[in-house]
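User:
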Amino acid sequence: MSNQTPPHFKETRPATSTSNLRTFATWTLAISALVLALAGAYFLGASSASVTEVEILIPTPAPAVVQITGEVRAPGVYELNRDDRVLLAIEAAGGMTDKADIERLNLAATITDGSLIHVPSLPPTPSLLAESETNPLDTVASDGITESKPTLPGTQNTSPFTEPINLNSATVDQLRSLPGIGETRADQIIALRTAVGRFSTIEQLLEIHGIGEKTLEAIRPIVVVE
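Assistant: Predicted structure:
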């Protein structure tokens, strides 16, 4: 027998086709993309369904109707907001005149529905006060009425009123010039006239605190109701 080396056998395996690998990878990517798309659509729909629209309503301030009188450029009735200040109400009436006494007003006060805002006048100047001085022999009664005494020889006690004053149209200055009616009483007469619309009798002045029968009799000859 001859010593021959047996031949070596090499095991061969079938090679994987490159095209098959590419097809497998393509399908894998497609399936993954589809799964991600479906998951995203699900979560997006769930989040959209959970959103609820909320409507916020802001309340509108209730209106307040006020009447503005006195030393303003356009007295009348105005509709404002309930939380407005007196200053805004006066500005709505055209603002104050040069005769307005601002020191007697609280411009920061809040208005109320149905209220009356009266802007008072400035007190008379010293020259006007000098013209209204009484006779040195006059005395002042307990209710503030000047009771006239006989004049001194050679003097003349003339009345400053040339015609009667109409209570329904008199200004604050005219009312203030009446005997026994000062600045406060004049403002109260204007306020009462505004509240009742107009006076029908002179006796309605007795409703004002501080005006008594003596004061009424003192001004009766020089006032009228028309």
